[in-house]
Amino acid sequence: MKPIRTIQSIAGILFSLCLVQGSALAQRRHPAAARDNTPAQPAPAAVTFDTLLAADSYKIYGEVRGVGQLVRSSAVRDILDPLMKIGAPPKEFKTLVKWLDSQADTLATSRLMFAGWPSRPKLPTVLFAIEFDSPEEARKFEPRLKLLLPKLFADPQGRENPHTANDPHTQTAETQPATNVTAKATQQYFLMQTGSLALISDVPFTLKALRPAGSKLMADDQNLRRVRDRFTTEALFVYFDFNSIAKEEEEQRRKYEEEARQRREAEAANPPKPVPDPSAEIVPEMQADDVDRPAVADDAPEILPEVSTQTGSRVVIENPVDKSAGELFGLLSQGFLSGATVLPEALGVAISFDSDSYSVRALLLSGPDGKGPPIPFLPQLVAGPALVPESPSVLPADTEFFVALSLDYPLIYDGLLNAINHATEMYAGPMRPAIKEVPSDSPFAAYEKSLGIKIKDDLLPLLGNEIALSLPVKTLDVGPPLSSAPASSDVAPSAGSEPGVVHNPSEPATPSPVIAIAIRDKEGVRKLIPKLIESMGLKGASLSAQTEKRDDTELVSYAGAFSYAFIGNFLVVSPDTKSVRHVVDSYLANETLGANSHFRNSTRWQPRQLLGQVYVSPTLMESYSSFARNLDSPFPSVLTELLSQLSPTAEPVTYSLSNEGMGPLHELHVPKNLVLLMIAGISGATEQSGPAMNEVVAQSSLRTIVSAEATYQATTGNGKYGTFDEMINQGLLAKDIMEKKGYRLELNLVGSSYEARANPLEYGKTGRVSFFIDESGILRGGDHGGGPATVSDKPVQ
């Protein structure tokens, strides 16, 4: 655990220098250890980043380029200012930021190298190196580091770091040797200057340990060079050597297996003597005669119980049942989540800070052929050929969240088949004595039989490689908290709406998800759709089908539960007829996503041919902007100043998945203004004590009470609801549930029901809206001047 804790400690400096995360450096301490004050061996004058480490030294390596320029850049300063003024960063973070700003000119062209997770013994857990233009510059800079590091690595006992003028290890730059070592027993760091490098670590080390004689240099590692060359212009670059990680895990596995084998052999050679249990009762043989059982002939065949698996397996049992569509979806879920994670050989991550956006890139090196799953923990998700996405020319221009992928369906099918079969065999192993037969047919055989087709042979050849998904942003739950204002409309909920949710008829209803699937044979798919729908449990679906013509496009819906239309080379499906109709109308009016200026301009950076694409419309940024501007913050002037500097134009978030021949390349672009709005919103919401956030917390608390009451009623309560104390004793509620800041929570049991309320402690200061909820789960609220809300209040949106 100590190496891991040390990595976490030193990592604080790294992310602070990158100015992405706050430093938690001084929050993780290690006990003082005796240091070897013997000066390290003189290093060759030509020691550089590329010649400092052996190839098998560390599993994590990275660089921060142009540290001083990065600190002074507007992209980074725009993040630091709200963090320093609005947020409450640790003291060490503030110290480091101020120090970096004061040293920005000296570090303008310097590089910072860091390495962690050692692969060999006698190496520091983490190692930092700062590169200067010359050894003289490095020697001049070392005293500045000696003044900074004690503040970041304070002694665990609160003692001052023993750097004094009389300490021979703190000589001035003029009297220091070419290689200087600074280490004391009470220090939490180790400082060395060699050549043009200043080295910082958590423990003493020698350069020979970093680079043993005759070893291959890390800079000559082929994978590192490929990733490093790909990310030469990014400000931050990090490399993960998964080959070394896998090798270490395999060695550990063999070690554990050998230890287990030795234990078994030792136990076999010296078996423990059985110890009689004096408390064991002796059951008389006559007790068996007291049990009435039907007589069974000696030669009667063994009756095997019915056996089923929780995974919808392909195991054939004595009384099999037909698989339903739900079981099919269970099989698919099992297949996608089964199988071992397929890690790449290496992973490279880079971050660049542009003037108007921040970009994150991740390259998964996948062997000589460059082929590998885009997501290692979903090995069954196999990418198809690179293509120019056509779905943006089909989906509406007002699409808020868009995802497109190129998939290889036959390979995905084979992968799912293998994963399900393997999981089935693993699960059914202990049950084999009760199993009649384990055939080799597909686990989808029962579903295919009811459908009358073969999925791989009859369905998949009809489909193209592209598939796209459209969703409203609010369904992702990635935006800021929603407004707590109660609904102002008196109209009744529309048909099919959720209970307790009031919809304003003047506003469009929230659209449902829409899926667009590329097809090769429209007529073939058209013939299969009724069978597919009936197999999902909608019996007689063809009788309830309703057809709607819109120009030359035909829209088909089934009892309001499923709708589809053929648009261009795509099959567009949705559970909501209105959503499909909107897609059709937008397509006919040429108001598609591909014609949207936001989409076109924000995706220009992407390669023409892609494996995947994601687009989040400016709606997300607009929601954060509205939330941040309405915050009741204790720093209104700072927030106002920050928000006034932002561009009023909302921008989208974009992502692409491609493969340049080395492996999957993930690339994410986030607008700088969105990042600043998120920082303003999070920082202000964290520190504020005004009504807006208090109301959000009160709503969340009441919903928590509803969940706790439902659990208590179904378990300990035996059908009855519980009080605060009863649910707290059962661990269903936190002890401070009644002490929520700004609001007072009340819970009353009324017969076989309950009523919970949240009222502001000081009306106008800690909140204005009072809230009410009962066993129906409908949250209601209204402005009662601090008085309690009732069941007659309107539902809260």
Question: What is the topological layout?
Answer:
Elements: H1 2-18, H2 49-52, E1 58-65, H3 67-72, H4 74-85, H5 91-102, E2 111-118, E3 126-131, H6 135-152, E4 179-182, E5 190-194, E6 197-201, H7 207-210, H8 222-230, E7 236-241, H9 242-269, H10 325-337, E8 346-353, E9 357-365, E10 401-406, H11 409-428, H12 445-451, H13 455-459, E11 463-471, E12 514-519, H14 522-535, H15 541-544, E13 545-550, E14 553-558, E15 562-567, E16 570-574, H16 577-588, H17 597-602, E17 612-616, H18 619-629, H19 636-644, E18 653-659, E19 664-671, H20 672-687, H21 691-714, H22 724-729, E20 743-750, E21 753-760, E22 770-774, E23 780-782, E24 794-795
Antiparallel strand pairs: 1-2, 1-7, 2-3, 3-6, 4-5, 5-6, 7-8, 8-9, 9-19, 10-11, 10-17, 11-12, 12-16, 13-14, 14-15, 15-16, 17-18, 18-19, 20-21, 21-22, 22-23, 23-24
Helix pairs in contact: 4-20, 10-11, 18-20
Distinct helical segment count: 22
What is the makeup of the main sheet?
19 strands, antiparallel
Broad structural category: alpha+beta
Mean pLDDT: 76
